[in-house]
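Write out this protein's structure.
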Amino acid sequence: MEGINHEFDRASLIQSAISVLKNSYAPYSRFNVAASVLCSSGRIYTGVNVENASYPAGRCAECNAIANAVGNGESKIEAIAVIGGKGAASDPDSVTSYCSPCGVCRQVMREFSDPNKLLIIMAKSPSNYKEVTLTDLLPSGFGPDKLQ
């Protein structure tokens, strides 16, 4: 992961996701997810998953966090932390596995990042996490550069 700026507080980024996990709306799957994105400005934005009785109308935490950032004038994300699991909204300490972003979220991340540098942090807690780049999760991804 050469060239990635590792100089930020991962525990704080993860904790910002944990702090909104209680707001996750997942009455159907009961799989609560929260995400926080670190933008190139240094600001952090959060999001949670929001399910809907019409399942395709639901939104993932990662997409909501990115939409929150973009709605506040951001255009480039540097890192994203994701945490989630069954019943995690009521008990964040119950998270027992790393929550990987879905394919749609990976594609949205691609739109607002350099895939070789975007750091994806899948967390169980502020001190227990796994890091990968977007290229690791979305090799040969389709992005804005392909339309030029």
